[in-house]
Structures
1.
Amino acid sequence: MAGIASGGCVIAAQCGRCGRTAADGDRFCGGCGAELGAVCPHCLRPLASDVAFCTSCGSPRPGTDRTATVTPQEDRRRVSVLFVDLIDFTPYVERADPEQVRGMQTGFFSAARRVVGQYGGVVEKYIGDAVMALFGAPIATETDALRCVRAGLELQRVLTRFAPTGSTEMRFRVGVATGEALVDVAAARDGGQAIVAGDVVNTASRMQSVAPPGGVLVCGTTHALTKDAIRYEEQPPVTLRGRSSPTEVWLALSPLRRQPTDREPDTTPLVDREHELGMLVNALHRSLRDRLPQVVTIFGRAGIGKSRLLRELYRHTGRLVDEPLTWRTGRCPPFGENVTFAALADIVKSEAGILDTDPAASAAQRLGTAVGELIGPGERDRVVDALRPLVGLPGTPLPAEEAESAWRRFLLALAARRPTVLVFEDLHWADDAMLRFVELLGAAAREVPLLLLCTARPELVDRDPSWAGTITGSVTITLPPLRDTGIAALYAHLFGQAAFSAEMLTPLIEVAGGNPLYAHEYVRMLIEQGALRQSGRGWSLDKQLELTMPESVHSVIANRVDLLDAKDRAVLLAASVVGVQFWPGAVAAALGQPVESVERALRRLEQRDFVHEQAASTMAGQAEFRFRHVLVRDVCYQRLPRTERVARHERAADWLDALSQSRDTDLAEVLAHHRWAAHEIARSLGMQMQRYAGPARQALHRAARRAYALHGLEAAASHAGQAARPGRRQRPGGPAATGAAEHGDLVLPGRQRVPLRRRAGAGARAGRPAGGAR
């Protein structure tokens, strides 16, 4: 229908493919032959292809399951929870005036909210004299646990001023725990109560109750994630209230000063980055020898090797440059106070030799000396006044433009004195003011030997697509994943050429996915677990090891997923149910959304390197996609609440069932997986089993017939025997199989879970639900 009269106006329908306006009565486009959009059966308004409900009257789209289209606002995620409590508050309330109590509470809660927000957390609730805060929602980062502990230390410093006058006994305790929880993402984004549920909340509360006054006590998981950035004191294990076994606890003392990344040692040589290193060397030569300032931005995912590449360049500067070179590094932090120009402050303090522990007088004297060596008497006082706030000293307030002009004058004078390299790391965490300053610095540099090196994740381009695009001499380097041969070379350098057989090395290469950080973190985890051991004959690896995902790797991937648009993230999570390889139709069925909108979302996800389209598809008329990294699929699947997993496995199975009813194809085993997964997760949740037992039994029979036809007699007997069991309370096959169903692994009834030596082959066929590490 081309035009619908509504309220005196005519709404003209246009073809979504070519834009041609349709005539009355048209069902197909006269320009390209595409089917025209549907109309709302209630108000006759045309419906866009990506809507599930009419935007005029709210009626559901024809053929749409109203319950299936609601995107869940809750997900399962790893979070860090902080409890801070005021000690001896009750005796104080008994003797204090109510107005005094209210004033003290108001100041306490306000300061707690400010500090928690400063470190990127969300206040979940106020409980009498306690505050509970959450880190890791709505956006997860690899620094969630660190930010939580840093917030706890800062709270202990700040909150002492809110102890009631004359009370020397009243102090604060802080407890921190990290673990999995069910989180209301919408509430976490907007702020509110009842955001999070899970044992991690109880653990954090119990940790706070046994923390020493004035102390920050953390769990073992939090300590493992932050021990490289926080100084800890080990405490005797404690048995928390309600627990039967002791819990490992650590007392946080203070943050550790972060070593500049260009000074960090490396255990392996640079692998497979010769081309990118050559580009940096050329930029260095051009800026220093030809006095043509260069701005080089290195883009790459977390852990891909941006800082490693800069360290390699730094180590080579001695033989690349004949004259003395100034190399200064500033880092944009993701949290804390005064973070706007923190990277610039790092550079100024490094040049002046100012330490954070220096008294004000010493810092002022060193700053004046540094400026005096670079700037003439006519400008010296103005530049010093502008730089003083950067190093933590009071100064004469200046307009923003004047202050930034003086900062640029200082840095350009630094380059005019001798060849200079200024490194700005993690620009994706910088705010707009810092980004503008770096761009203006690059544009203002003329005929001085200055090289500006910036590192950033691809999110910076999403925020600022034109970043540094107008600066003469601007170069962008994007680091791709390492090739499998590069990851294999990395392992060879770590363990020796003959440490593992190719069969053992293959799954380790697969889980690394071209990311050096993932490779190093898996090695560290295996060594800590005792699965990777060194003996007189070299390294040995437990062949039957279940390869779980390191927390650090999980956090990096979770951050990428959280930064997606909500619609694209929902499609990615639905695809994780279908499998490592999937089709838009199956994802649309699992999600309960039109396939056209799913296809558009998949194209956007392909641009952001989450998925990629296969060269050929096993289904006519359906493109076939695959997750770029099996670990991305694992993180997405683990995000889904278990009730949602049941529903999506069931919908994916219904879609596969409709396609394969006429014959038993390779999809029979995939269908059996989805039916069985829905059945097992529903059983573990105590749901009514009649709905799932029958379809699971039928799917298992079909899988048995398919296996028998292919002479897989053992598999056929296993499927047939298991088909008689759905609906029973006892789960034959044991806990391992149940866990596999809950995590979406390709472990069919009666079979063993795929061991490490065989994991690389799991999920290789289209639609297989998993494969890779858990």
2.
Amino acid sequence: MSTASLAVSGLRGHARRLAATALAIVLSVAFVATTMLMLDALERGVGESVAGDFVNRDLVVRQTDGAANTAGVDALRAADGITVVDASARVPGTIGNNGAIATTAPRGPGVALQEGALPTGPDQVVVSSVSAATVGDTVTFQAYEYDGRQGAAVDLEVVGVMDVGNAPELSWSEVLVVDEATLRAWDPELTFDAITVDLSGADEGAARATIGQLLPGAEVLTGQEAANLAVAQATGGLDLLGPVLLGFGAIAVATSALVIANTFAIVLTQRTRELALLRCVGATRSQVRRTVLTEAGLLGAAASTAGVLLAVAVTWTAATVLGEIDLGTPMTLRPGLEPVSLVVPWVVGVAVTVAAAWLPTRRATRVAPMAALQPATATVVASRPGLIRILASVVLLGAGAAGLVLASSTGDVVIGVAAGLVSFIGVLVAAVFFVPAGIRGLGAALRGVPSRLAVGNTVANPGRAAATSAALLIGVTLITMTSVGAASAERTAMGEIDQQYPADVMAFPQFELTGSPSDEAGEQMVVEALNGAVFTQVAGVAGVAEAVEFGGGWLQVESADGTWSAESPVYGIDPTAVAPVLRDAGAVERLQPGTVGMSEWIMEINGLELGDTVQLSGPDGSSEATVVAFPMDEFVLPAADLAALDASSAAGGGLLLRLSDDADVATVVAEIRDIVEPEGAWVTGGAPARAQLTTMLDVLVLITTALLGVAVVIAVVGIANTLALSVLERTRENSLLRAMGLTRAQLRGMLTVEGVLLAVVSALLGIGLGVTYAWFGVQTLMPDGTDTVLAFPLTRLVVILAVALGAGLLASVLPARRAAMVTPAAGLAAVG
């Protein structure tokens, strides 16, 4: 009989016994494939939402130092072999007292002309869909010219209404879409932010050479490179998405490999006596080995195919049902059939199933047939296998820990993922010792005969207990790591945002030029302060928790050595009054009398450092001040110091606002803008960035937790498989216990306690490992100099432990029921 025939017969004869293994393979492969397909879809959505049309273009030319001017763009359009798809340019200005941006028609997801037509002349405009203007209205726009002065007012007829998409740079101001010729007329020195190019005959190298010749100094990127850069810029340089996807994908593949290997090892252990019988009736070692490996290959191929198909169905169904996910910026899930995301899980499923069968088969064929028919003995610490296992676990854990420390200090994600896998393998190797120890520790608190019997049965075979706990250990570790990692990343990133923006929302006033050169005081810039009525309205907006006014003045700021000076708005705050509003309360403590606060960016562009001295001069006096750090891209003084230099600042200026934690940020900010912008103020702040980050991480945790829930299902299969194996092997033992007086309920209780002990020990160990990996992971992903904060989402951790407990209970139901149905007489008559 051929090996293939034996393999097929083995699969048919053990279909019920292999069902659990097949289910584990299907779920594991589906787990990997769904993860990869969903992350592909999410990555496409992120790229489309943030990067717009870049990803669809061959090349993107980015502005650097005025390289992309009108003459260069015209020459580029006339060049052979390339086609300029779009050249985006913007001119800032005002509509009345409100800030506005005039732009060429944007491209990308969500951009759509909702009404009317695109502008074709210098007196036509398309407004955004959030504008109060409609087709047929007239808007008056004043552009800022290239030298910073405001040009003449221009009346524009509204000929269309457009949804301008979700580009962050278009979210704070009124948006006007005009044609390129109009922008050129308003700004003779117009430069283009980005130029998208498709190749139409030229190869990429020739196209780059042409662009370099016509636009010297311009940065040329591929469409994908430009898209990646746009994503990084949109997240403030804190590119969490790429490393998270890379790390999670790698962990998912390795996790599924371990789950399949452990589950198949349990089943082959169950068949060890059967394989020995084949040897007894004449099968050679190589025949037995080939038969089992062929069985594993066929089972792996069939189950892996089913898993991939299940993953495709789940991914496309999720994309159809969910459609769009709001990650702070709405984005559409774009499912696809990436070959890598389909082939890799299938290959992993087949290869790991075959590899998992290799070691048990090799072990079975190395032992003499008659010896293999004897009961297996458990590994003990004093034995040679135990010492080897201890040594291997120490080496793996030590190497993994060293790698995690190295990755967290260097920021190398690849090293971090590899070290995490190595250390986790070390944990699995050592689990044969400390899982039984944990079970004994928990069992010491239990009372009653069934509980004591359960503890003894569970630790009787340490290898089996360790292999069974691995599935749930993997799932709990990853879910905990994701939850704690996301919470820690959120709290850490919030701290970084708080250092960039002192308040959730800041309303800055405009300044007006008053007086004339013939006056004694001459011309002066005076703040147009927001009045008390505006303050009352803003403070009353639902979602505004705290509101504080701050003053504004106009001073000359000069370095101590006189190498530079500038006239600039300077804002004055009362440290005591604004403390409740600030997210970073420590920032205001540095702002003492005789100091001037500046952000790192302000210091960098002016060549200043902390502790430098600057000269401040205003209409009412002058003084020196020491530079201190303050998270606002403006010059900031204590209110009393500013009033001494510019008395008009005492009349007020702008507003600092703190929003409630449950506020709808977009709605609240829109209401605040509606109130203050008609008064000439402009609005910025950290609230939108905080809301976007929170939403992104919450969705990430939701998706990954849903995917990792499959690992919990696999764990239930693994624990149930082990308990079922235990019931079969201990049929006579259980029947003897029944004959000695153990009731059916007590027998069911004993098996239930076994399942719960395995689940709880695995969950506690997984939570500890998950917290550790999350801590090192966040430190690795965050940029250098970031103060990492470890956060514990206690509610989620309690839920994880409860779900693990439920998994143990669920896994014990069928085995306990089967054991209780066997009568003592029938069980004692069974062949052992």
